[in-house]
Amino acid sequence: MNEPDLPAFPWGPRDYRRFANWLSVGIHLYLYLGMIVLLYLVNGQTWILGWKPAAITLVSGVLLARLWYRWMMQLDARYGSGRGWELWSRRVKLPERAERPGAGPT
Q1: 3-state SS of the chain?
Q2: pLDDT by residue (tens digit) across 16-66?
């Protein structure tokens, strides 16, 4: 029962960010519109249309998208193939240690 060797996480970091952002926007829009329907249209409460609930929804959406992105990147780094990642090679020449004049051996 050998399963085909398919990559578990076929996307790159840009795709993970896009997916996390759209998922967060979709879920928060669905929940906020549902609250508007239940509270404003059904019960006539107007506080849900104020700036504070909208600001809390916006902040929650940004935080949730960021957490989802970090979670997906950690899963991909641990279990995935890492396809789409770019590793830049850099060489840095460190300065030579110069002895100060008048300083004795250490």
Answers
A1: CCCCCCCCCCCCHHHHHHHHHHHHHHHHHHHHHHHHHHHHHHCCCCHHHCHHHHHHHHHHHHHHHHHHHHHHHHHHHHHCCCCCCCCCCCCCCCCCCCCCCCCCCC
A2: 899 999 999 999 999 999 999 999 999 889 998 899 999 999 999 999 999
Query: Six-digit token pair at 96?
Result: 């030579």
- Say which residues have a Cβ less than 8 Å from residue 27's Cβ, sequence separation at least 6: 64
How far CA 70 is from CA of 55, 65, 73, 81, in Å, comes to 23, 9, 5, 16
Angle 13-74-16 from CA coordinates, rounded to 5°: 25
Report whether 35 contacts 47 (CB < 8 A): no
